[in-house]
Amino acid sequence: MDVFGNPVAVGGDFLRAAAIDAAHELGIFARLAAAPATLDELARAAGVGTGHRRLRALCDVLAAIGAITRPAPRVARFAAASSTPPRAGVPRAGWGQLADVIRADRALPPEEGDVALRYQRHLAVAGADAARELAPLLGRGPLLDLGCGLGTYSAAFLDATPGASATLCDRPDIVALAGAELARHRDRVRLVAGDARTAPVGAGHGAVLLANVLHLHDERVGAELCLTAARAVADDGVVVIKDLRVDEDRGGPLEGLLFALNMAVYTDGGDVYPVTQLRTWLTSAGLPAIEERRLAAAPDGVVLFARRGSRTAVPA
Ligand SMILES: C[S@@+](CC[C@H](N)C(=O)[O-])C[C@H]1O[C@@H](n2cnc3c(N)ncnc32)[C@H](O)[C@@H]1O
Fold first, then answer.
1. How far is CA 31 from CA 19, 74, 105, 214, in A?
2. CA distances in angstroms from 152 to 47, 127, 135, 195, listed in the order given
3. What is the Cα–Cα distance from 140 to 206, expressed in whole angstroms?
4. Could you tell me which of 235, 234, 252, 243 has the C-alpha nearest to residue 279?
5. Cα–Cα distance between 301 and 244 in angstroms, integer?
6. How confident is the model at residue 11 (pLDDT cuts 50, 70, 90)?
7. Which among 10, 102, 239, 265 could bridge 5 via Cys, Cβ 3.0 to 4.6 Å?
8. Comparing C-alpha atoms, which of 1, 54, 9 is closest to residue 271?
9. In terms of CATH architecture, what is 114-247+266-307?
10. pLDDT value for 73
11. Considering the domain 7-104, what is its CATH architecture?
C-alpha cells in the first residue's frame, strides 16, 4: 500500500480493519468493556505515554464506524458499543503498525522516490475535477500556488484564465515536476523551490492557494502558512484554502476522520482541521472576511475564501 495513501483510494474497508485491529492491540475494547473512559484513561490503559493526538484520531474513527460510542458529542469520552468487532488480522505494515505508532507517538518514516511520485500522480488525477471547478473562482490572478504538488490547481487555473500567470512553490524535486507538467504554459509560470514560509514567493498576488497542504502540518505551521499567504496576497486579493473537512465535534465525515488518522500515522503533526481552526488561522493572519463553500467534485472537503476586510491589517 502507498504509505501516503488517500484512504478512499486504498479502500475504506482496509483502513477500518486496521483501526479495529489497533484497538484490540491497545486494549481499547477491553478497557471500555469495563467502563466508559476518557481519552486520558484510554491512553493510560494502552500505554501511550506522551501526546494523545494519534489515539484521539483512532478513537474518532472507531466511534464513527460504530466500533465504540461517544456518549456526549464534543467530549473525548468513549464507551463500549453493543458488540465488539472481531480482529481482522491486517498485515503488520503501513497502517498495520497503527498500534505501534500510537504507543510510541511517532510517525512512520515518509516514503521518498517512486512511492512519493506515485502519490503525487495519484493526487493530480484525483484532484483534477476539483481543480477545474475551483479555477473560475480564483479571479484573474496572478495566482500563487503554495504547496503546488504537480501543479494540478495551477494548470486548471491557467487553462481557464487566458493571459493569467501563476507562481508555484514546493520542495525543489516536486516543483521541478510541476514545471514539466505545466510546460504548455511555460511563459506564464514561475517556479519557486523551497519552504513556502521562507521562499521568495513575492507579493501582490490576486489569489493565493493552499490546496491540500495544511493537513500535513501541526497547528504552528498551519498558522505560519496562512500568514505567508496573507502577506503574499494583494490588498484586494483572496486567500483560498481547499482541504479535507471534519465536523466541529469530530463525529464525521468518515473520509475526513480516516484521513486525519492517516496523517497521525505518516506525519509528525498533521491533522484534518475543523473549519473553526482554519478560520482562526486566517483571521489571525489579517483575513477576517471569510466565505465558506463546498465543491461538487470534492464533497468531503471545504473551501474557504478569505479577504482582508477593511479594518484588519496583515502583520508585517
Ligand atoms: C498533498 S500535496 C497537495 C498538492 C497540490 N496542492 C494538490 O492539491 O494537488 C501537498 C504538497 O504541499 C507541499 N508542501 C507542504 N508543506 C509545504 C511547505 N511548507 N512549503 C512548500 N511546500 C509544501 C508538499 O511537498 C506537497 O507537494
1. 16, 21, 20, 34
2. 42, 7, 10, 19
3. 7
4. 243
5. 4
6. low
7. 10
8. 54
9. 3-Layer(aba) Sandwich (3.40)
10. 78
11. Orthogonal Bundle (1.10)
Q: Is 217 helix (H, G, I), strand (E, B) or coil?
A: coil
Atom 4, ligand 1: which residue's CA is nearest? Answer: 149
Residues of the chain with CATH 1.10.10.10: 7-104
In this structure, the residues whose C-beta lies within 6 A of any atom of ligand 1 are: 123, 127, 147-149, 152-153, 169-171, 174, 195-197, 211-213, 216
- Dump pLDDT digits (tens) for 139-195: 999 999 999 999 999 999 999 999 999 999 999 999 999 999 999 998 999 999 999
Question: What's the grid cell of residue 275?
Answer: 473549519
Whole-angstrom Cα distance, residue 190 to residue 204?
A: 14
SS3 category, 70: coil
Q: What share of the chain is helix, strand, coil (3-state, %, to 5)?
A: 45, 20, 35
In angstroms, the CA 176 to CA 94 distance is: 28
For ligand 1, pick from 154, 170, 210 the residue to mutate: most ligand atoms within 8 Å of CB.
Answer: 170
Q: Give the Å distance between the CA of 108 and the centre of ligand 1.
A: 19
Under 8 Å between Cβ of 127 and 303:
no
Of all protein residues, whose CA lies closest to atom 13 belonging to ligand 1?
Answer: 147
Whether the Cβ atoms of residue 152 and residue 127 lie closer than 8 Å to each other = yes
